[in-house]
Specification:
Elements: H1 7-27, H2 42-60, H3 65-68, H4 84-101, E1 108-111, E2 120-123, E3 126-130, H5 131-146
Parallel strand pairs: 1-3
Antiparallel strand pairs: 2-3
Amino acid sequence: MAIHPNLQSMLKESLPEMLLVAKYCIEFQKDTSIWSAPGCYGYPAALVLLSIADSIGSYIEQGSIKNHFKILNNQNYYDLNLSNDEIGIIYDKYRNLLSHHTVMSTDVGLNIGALTSSVLQKENGKYWLNLIPFYNVSVKTVKSFLDNPKILENNQTI
């Protein structure tokens, strides 16, 4: 953590820090003598990755907070080709509930996923947010965002 002269400088530290925290959460393996089930720290990983998308979307997409998640379809960033309903599911059933209540909707789930998995997948009528592919596309997105010097020209103060 450092003192920064501007938002660009701060984002060059904060976004990579958030990626590192998400990676740690995904790679961590819970001790089954403490936790009731094996796995990673999925809830915080998902929240951090969704916060990164929300943050980048706030600079790129105009309008309400819900519009920030249109970044998930932006060809220069996430390029996920989600339907409007799927973006709504990510916003309402994952991001909002995790951010404000530390839970998700019970009709969606988290999965570690694989390198070849889609970020959001529907299986047997239930949506699954796959953490590994979401992390990987987030790494590329953060790099694209930070490599664009014009992004913050009109957003010098918050």
